[in-house]
Amino acid sequence: MVNYIWFFLILVGIFFALLTGRIDVINNSILTNGKEGLDLILSILPIIVLWTGIMKIAEDSGLLKKFAHLVQPLLSKLFPDVPKDNPALGYIASNIAANMMGLGSAATPFGLKAMKELQKINPDKETASTPMITFLVLNTAGVTIVPTTVLALRIAHHSANPSEIIIPGVIATFCSSLGGLLLDYFIRRRKR
Amino acid sequence: MNLLSKIVIPIFVVAVIFYGFKQKINVYESFLAGAKEGLYITFNIFPAVIAMVFAINIFLDSNFIYFLLNSFRGLFNFLHIPLEIMPMALLRPVSGTASLAIMNDIFLRFGPDSYLGRLASILQGCTDTTIYVLALYFSSIGIKKIRYSLGVGLFADLVGIIMAFILTMILF
After folding, report:
1. Where are the domains of chain A?
2. Who among B103, B128, B147 is closest to A141 (CB)?
3. Residues in CB range of B140: below 8 A, 6 or more apart
4. What is the pTM of this model?
5. Complex ipTM
6. Chain B residue numbers touching A169 (CB-CB < 8 A)
7. C-alpha span between A27 and A14 (Å, rounded)
8. What is the DSSP string of A149-177?
9. Domain range list for chain B
10. Is the alpha carbon torsion for A181, A184, A190, A192 positive or negative?
């Protein structure tokens, strides 16, 4: 997928520039691009390192687990088809907790384990089950409280108040989660 | 609202460190171990970021997207939607690095405290790489029929995008 998009972006960009006589701009762009990519990485690096450090403390001290326990009762309501003692619910809770704290890469292993557990109780192994879809909606629309990379980039570009977008972001992400879950709920009810 | 945004991170940091201390773990050692992981994570995404900045910049500098969207300019103006945000909104569900590269471009051209800069910041935080996540998770367990999952996922992203527009407009 990304393969096609990458190819498409470069091909269309260069051809369109050739047709419209902007090839000198593209030439310039290609030559200076590497530096811009390096700057981008360097500007997000410190915050990512710092934040994964802080979150490691939360993981080692059991805070992340405690938080996961807290949301678990809510989860069994969202997943009526999953037995209460199924390990999938624990993985889902950990996945959401990690996503909330802006640790996308730490969330993925939990998410993959949750899918594996859900697959075990899926009657049709080639078709997505209802709990799987609810989980993915929850995951992709998931509430992010600390958008680490966004903050890092805002700081690098000398924002006067880098963190001003946190609360509006939380409200927006909450609405998107709610919207996704409601639509999922209505589809589930109609299919029953 | 502004104050609340400012205290979220300090309070979070204090709570995490305090809890770790109370549980008698070596908070300093844990931090170092985590920071090292963070270094690997950034190191691992480095090639992808270079690749995406490369492709996105060529695409944006060619002005193709404006050529494509120009016929809708009236509609966008009417809705107060800046054209510059569209590439980001369109690529966000597929690639996190691509939308990050576009956000970087917006910050460079308009600054992070402009209307566009704030909109891009909120947009990046409140939506996810839905198509990528769906592909990764379903293929990991061999699911072939994904039913209505893509529709619901993209619907949630759309709600997020609309909310980002409304909030940026009324709050700043």
Report:
1. 38-191
2. B128
3. A112, A115, A116
4. 0.85
5. 0.84
6. 121-122, 125-126
7. 9
8. HHHHHHHHTT-SSGGGGHHHHHHHHHHHH
9. 46-171
10. negative
